[in-house]
Amino acid sequence: MKIKPTENYEQLLARFTKRIAQVSKQTPANTVEAEKQKEQLDYLRGCKDTIDYLMTGKLPNDGNHDGMKNHKPVRHGDVGSLD
């Protein structure tokens, strides 16, 4: 998606949120349409997560990511042990 010169992250986030609500309200007539709706919702949620990441630097808490936690990097003496 190409960002318009007049759009900022907040506007994009609002647009994706609104579109997700619109698509969610639609009732698919069959399984093919249901699968297309699921794919579209996954895409839109990914777009929204991307904008949120660009705004805040935080990864989404979607079950696959827990955000970035504070930690001390571990130094390994044996690089071969990392395989």
Word description of this protein:
The chain is built from two helices and no strands. The protein has helices at residues 9-25, 31-56.
Which short descriptors sum up this protein?
single chain, 83 residues, mainly alpha
Strand content: under 5%
What is the general shape? flat
- Count of helical segments? 2
Structural class label: mainly alpha
| Oligomer designation | single chain
Poorly predicted runs are: none
- According to DSSP, the number of beta strands is 0
Give the % helix: 40-55%
N-to-C span: 38 Å
Q: Could you tell me the mean pLDDT? A: 80
The radius of gyration is 19 Å
Main β-sheet description: none
Q: Note the run of SSEs as H and E.
A: HH
Summarize this structure briefly.
By secondary structure, the protein is mostly helical. The protein has helices spanning 9-25, 31-56.
Describe the protein's topology:
Elements: H1 9-25, H2 31-56
Helix pairs in contact: 1-2
